[in-house]
Write a structure and sequence with these properties.
The protein has 617 residues and is of the alpha/beta class. Helix content is 36%, strand content 23%.
């Protein structure tokens, strides 16, 4: 939530800031703003409520003077509605100091009261302005030492924050700090960058440094200095960004979501690539970590939203191949009960962004209770993998659309790789089962591509016909159940249509009462080759809802004729082993949600009220 970018160097910072914000806009799009220090040492600022385009238009009509030092922000509102006044940057010290912020300053009310008592005046309802005004006061008190003043401020803040600040007295200097909120450094030649994530600067440099918790960074064109909150030097961890800058562009697609759905085959292929050797699964990141998997008797998967659904699918694979009991829990629920976790528990977190606050806090809580932790993550340098004992990266490439699609299929793929690896290490998995799973993994990209090539048009047409639908239900069973949940979430999220996912077996325990003539119901049908019994049970669920007037849209493997008599539509997926079907069955549901949102004329990439990276609780 909220995107942050900072720049110092020889170039005009405005263009760099605005294009960085464009790449970070998925993090929040309630307002945007930039501040720059120009050649004569004057600080200029512009901010606008609404999407980044409004800021761009304003800068085009009335440009700010060129400046080579700058900070920029795109907001997802927490304290204060999305207005011009509440947009960042916030200014202080007679408008000579600018501050931007991501996170929530929990003690802002006390700080603001203290400052108001001293006569300071506030112009917004935000928690951020408190940090700006406090920094102005500390700056004066320090006799103009921006870094010392910044240290004094961050030591007083409670909550989660990434803060960037600059002052017109110090052209060529941007200071930043982070606590439980993301910030990475980009290293250029004679120029340096800060960003909420590497997307902010990947078009300029792939050399990056990760900043740890409770650390401060000062960037100048010549260098970067990282310290803790007390000013003691810290060595940041260097890494090379593997994302191709072009991967974060739309590349001719009408939306990022359309591009990212088209990349689902590649996301799976890239996640498997390099992890199969001599007919076995080899995860180089897990070398030397066998004790993580042998010394445990339980796995807890923690995640939120779509990532949580991938965990629900992963449970079936981990239990089958690794023979360990798995609980899958929403990260925000885990943290606020009294979980029974200890040294023999492995907590596997799943997060595309690696920054979801609920997941991060749950991982920290699990570690505090003695659990070992493994992160499945798509974003290099993100906080959750850095806080974990082990990492498996999904290689889906940057996901920009708010609705997660390619990351979801990559997450299930990574969970399967994990399950196979652990199964082998623990001696629970036979060579034959491993070899069969590898063939399935390697076939997946082609099979997903088949769905996109052969069914996409049909699904989009269906979505178009259903543009006025007010409610859609999704049913699934076994590994198809989480897919029903994912189909429903995606539809709610980008089409604003009421949608619910149910386990098909639950139908008669309540949800069947929702069925009335014309009610559309997607049914994920398991292959009869996996379990004839499960297949038969889902077919009878179809018969029951069809008899009550439901409009049934079945997602079924090619050649399954049992679905035909009672289904109004059948969306076909290629044959696959039963555990691998969810990675195929979800594709039509992603395409459908996107098609329906487009048919309603909605912004599929930036749905209302949402932001991609949920970095506040
Ligand atoms: C839904 C969606 C969200 C995320 C959830 C977790 O399309 O994108 O439900 O899956 O907010 O985000 P990450 O994976 O970044 O932790």
């Amino acid at each position: 939530m909220c995107g942050i970018v900072g720049y110092v160097g020889p170039r005009n910072s405005q263009e760099i800031l605005v294009s960085g914000l464009a790449r970070l806009e998925y993090r929040g799009y309630d307002s945007a703003g930039i501040a720059v220090v120009d050649g004569s040492g004057h600080l200029g600022m512009r901010k606008r409520a609404g999407k980044l385009q409004r800021l761009r238009d304003s800068l085009a009509d009335d440009p700010l003077p060129d400046g080579t030092t700058g900070i920029g922000h795109t907001r997802w509102a927490t304290h204060g509605s999305p207005t011009d006044a509440n947009a960042h940057p916030h200014l202080a010290d007679d408008d000579r100091l600018a501050v931007i912020h991501n996170g929530i300053i929990e003690n802002f009310a006390d700080l603001r009261a203290e400052l108001e008592q001293q006569g300071y005046v506030f112009r917004s309802e935000t928690d951020t302005e408190t940090a700006a005004v406090l920094l102005g006061r500390e700056y004066r008190a320090s006799g103009g030492d921006l870094e010392a003043a910044f240290r004094a401020v961050v030591r007083r803040l409670e909550g989660a924050f990434t803060l960037l600040a600059m002052h017109e007295d110090h052209p060529g200097l941007v200071v930043g700090a982070r606590r439980n909120s993301p910030l990475v450094i980009g290293i250029g030649d004679g120029e340096n960058f800060l960003g909420s994530d590497v997307a902010a600067f990947v078009e300029h440099t792939r050399r990056a440094l990760a900043i740890g918790q409770d650390q401060i960074v000062a960037i100048t064109p010549e260098g970067v200095a990282v310290t803790d909150f007390d000013g003691a030097g810290v060595e940041p961890q260097a890494f090379e960004v593997s994302w191709d800058p072009a991967a974060a562009d739309k590349g001719g697609w009408p939306s990022f979501m359309a591009k990212e759905v088209s990349e689902e085959p590649e996301a799976v292929a890239n996640t498997v690539r390099g992890r199969v050797r001599d007919g076995g699964i080899v995860i180089p990141e897990l070398d030397g970590l066998d004790d993580l998997f042998t010394g445990i008797d339980r796995v807890i998967v923690l995640a939120c939203g779509t990532a949580y659904y991938s965990g629900l699918v992963g449970k079936y694979a981990i239990e089958k191949w690794a023979g360990i009991p798995v609980d899958v829990e929403l990260a925000h629920e885990f943290r606020y009960r009294d979980p029974i976790v200890g040294a023999r528990t492995l907590v596997v977190s799943i997060s595309q962004s690696g920054e979801t606050m609920d997941t991060l806090m749950a991982v920290k809580e699990a570690a505090r209770l003695g659990a070992r932790t493994l992160s499945i993550c798509n974003t290099q340098g993100a906080t959750i993998p850095r806080e974990s004992d082990a990492i498996i990266y999904t290689h889906a490439g940057p996901e920009v659309a708010v609705a997660s699609t390619k990351a979801f299929v990559a997450q299930i793929t990574a969970l399967y790789l994990f399950a196979l690896h652990v199964g082998r290490v623990r001696g629970a998995l036979g060579a034959e089962a491993e070899a069969e799973a590898i063939v399935e993994l390697e076939e997946l990209p082609g099979r997903i591509q088949w769905i996109l090539d052969n069914e996409q048009e049909h699904i989009e047409q269906l979505a178009h016909w259903m543009a006025d639908t007010r409610s859609v239900l999704f049913l699934g069973r076994h590994v198809g159940f989480p897919i029903a949940l994912e189909g429903a979430l995606k539809l709610k999220e980008i089409s604003y249509i009421h949608a619910e996912g149910f386990a098909a077996g639950e139908l008669k325990h309540g949800p069947i009462a929702l069925i009335e003539p014309g009610q559309p119901v997607f049914v994920v049908v398991p292959s009869p080759r996996g379990s004839a019994t499960l297949h038969a049970k889902v077919i009878s669920a179809i018969e029951e809802i069809h008899a009550r007037g439901a409009r049934v849209i079945a997602i079924a493997e090619q050649g399954d004729t049992a679905v035909l008599p009672k289904s109004d539509e059948v969306l076909r997926i290629p044959l696959a082993a039963p555990l691998f079907e969810p990675i195929l069955a979800v594709v039509p549901l992603h395409v459908f949600a996107m098609g329906l949102a487009e048919a309603k004329g909605l912004d599929v990439d930036q749905p209302r009220n949402l932001a991609k990276s949920v970095t506040v609780e």
